[in-house]
């Protein structure tokens, strides 16, 4: 029965329109001088499995990833810090490889903060993605919404907090981003 839900969720993923990173114009990487640029770089980093650049997107001192409450009910912690995030994502990137990761964020309508603002939260970003495990030849889709808080440091926007939310319509199916990261 769960396979029927996974197939339906996968079809839903295919039908969604999302903005992806694609390394900016003319192959020049996105930069962190704008919130949108940081989020596009975030997508690029995930799709390229670039752990070194990912480290620079997160605030080493304050970063916190908050799991969806349903994931916590299934035994995951309520949150983890920068060290746990880098360890899990680094393990995932190494195990899966860039050719096996596909992440999309719906960034249509993202507004930039006022120039005077030093922190900013982007609410309700829809995401969908898939990792392919070559060893087991299995695909693992993930789907949900996230809120990301950023702060401006030396003219660059860095991520301080990330809240992961399962979509209420498909709660529990497929996985959330947090569940995928926690596997590694």
Topology:
Layout: H1 2-15, H2 35-48, H3 51-57, E1 64-66, H4 69-73, E2 79-81, H5 82-96, E3 101-105, E4 119-133, E5 138-153, E6 156-165, H6 177-182
Parallel strand pairs: 1-6
Antiparallel strand pairs: 1-2, 3-4, 4-5, 5-6
Helix pairs in contact: 2-3
What CATH first level would be assigned? Alpha Beta
Spans where pLDDT lies below 50 across 5 or more residues? 1-22
Major sheet strand order:
2-1-6-5-4-3
Note the main sheet.
Answer: 6 strands, mixed
**Record field, number of beta strands:** 6
How many domains is the backbone divided into? Answer: 1
Into which percentage range does the β-strand content fall?
A: 25-35%
Rg (CA only):
16 Å
H and E string? HHHEHEHEEEEH
Described by the principal axes of the CA atoms, the overall outline is globular
CATH architecture: Roll
Notes on the protein architecture:
The protein has 184 residues and is of the alpha+beta class. Helices cover 33% and strands 28% of the residues. Strand 4 and strand 5 (138-153) form a beta hairpin. Helix 2 (35-48) runs antiparallel to helix 3 (51-57). The radius of gyration is 16 Å and the shape is globular. The chain starts with a helix and ends with a helix. It has helices at 2-15, 35-48, 51-57, 69-73, 82-96, 177-182; strands at residues 64-66, 79-81, 101-105, 119-133, 138-153, 156-165.
In short:
The protein has 184 residues and is of the alpha+beta class. The chain contains 6 helices and 6 strands. Helices cover 33% and strands 28% of the residues.
